[in-house]
């Protein structure tokens, strides 16, 4: 099931995307109250092409893992850590499909980082890895946008990762997905820059959910970014970046300046 958050010019709503996106026949069927509890269909049905997709959730927090692919750790100049490296992005960094990634004036290099994202479905704490997928609502695409120069100079990653628009997610949440071996690909102006598979994650989704939930309570709608593969690089205003995870879809965002 593909769960989207959208607007048709009125208040944002949740809906289920039905039909084929590829041939243009997909529609969004409205649901109430939200996907984190039993829901019913409202009867509203709109062609997908006639609505604007929004970020599929507004998380209380975005938990992220650094250097979770060995090839990315090497391209950053080091070995992969033995334990997950956890950091946070603020909820204000969230952007939706088609929203611009806004380059801040105080950074000279801003990079794309395509990732598989996990959306938590219910309140949980201390979840064992063998039950981790039971607390997951589904999966979406994400771009862990990073001001690389600020990451290098600050000594920690909060500012570099936390600018407004630095966490595009979407286009929707796919609830029926095995995340263990999915192609993840990032393009910049149509040119492939990252091309990998989630089976190469050093710490897989169940391990990450268990690790994060030992540190803090996870709430419905929280988003977990699982790490980016090798191939990260800078973006410039006027370019377009797209992150694709097979079985989910493609998240596309233009790049602009403030």
Automatic annotation (TrEMBL):
GO terms for biological process: carboxylic acid metabolic process. Keywords: Isomerase, Metal-binding. This is 2-hydroxyhepta-2,4-diene-1,7-dioate isomerase. One of its GO terms (molecular function) is acetylpyruvate hydrolase activity. Residues 1-56 form the Rv2993c-like N-terminal domain. Residues 61-255 form the Fumarylacetoacetase-like C-terminal domain. SUPFAM superfamilies: FAH.
């Amino acid at each position: 099931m593909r769960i989207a958050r959208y607007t048709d010019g009125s208040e944002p709503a949740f809906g289920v995307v039905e039909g084929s996106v590829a041939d243009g026949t997909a529609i969004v069927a409205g649901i109430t109250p939200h996907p984190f509890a039993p829901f019913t269909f409202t009867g509203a049905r709109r062609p997908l092409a006639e609505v604007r997709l929004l970020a599929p959730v507004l998380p209380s927090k975005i938990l992220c893992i650094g250097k979770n692919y060995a090839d990315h750790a090497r391209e950053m100049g080091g070995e992969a850590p033995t334990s997950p490296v956890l950091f946070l992005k603020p909820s204000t960094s969230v952007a939706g499909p088609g929203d611009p990634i806004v380059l801040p004036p105080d950074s000279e290099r801003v990079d794309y980082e395509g990732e598989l994202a996990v959306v938590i479905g219910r309140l949980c704490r201390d979840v064992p890895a063998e039950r981790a997928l039971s607390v997951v609502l589904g999966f979406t695409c994400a771009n862990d946008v990073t001001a690389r120069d600020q990451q290098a100079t600050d000594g920690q990653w909060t500012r570099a990762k936390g600018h407004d628009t630095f966490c595009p997610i979407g286009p929707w949440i796919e609830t029926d997905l095995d995340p263990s071996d999915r192609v993840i690909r990032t393009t910049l102006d149509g040119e492939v820059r990252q091309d990998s598979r989630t089976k190469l994650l050093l710490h897989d989704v169940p391990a990450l959910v268990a690790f994060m939930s030992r540190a803090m309570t996870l709430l419905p709608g929280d988003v977990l970014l699982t790490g980016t593969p090798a191939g990260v690089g800078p973006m410039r205003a006027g370019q377009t970046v797209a992150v694709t995870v097979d079985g989910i879809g493609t998240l596309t965002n233009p790049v602009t300046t403030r």
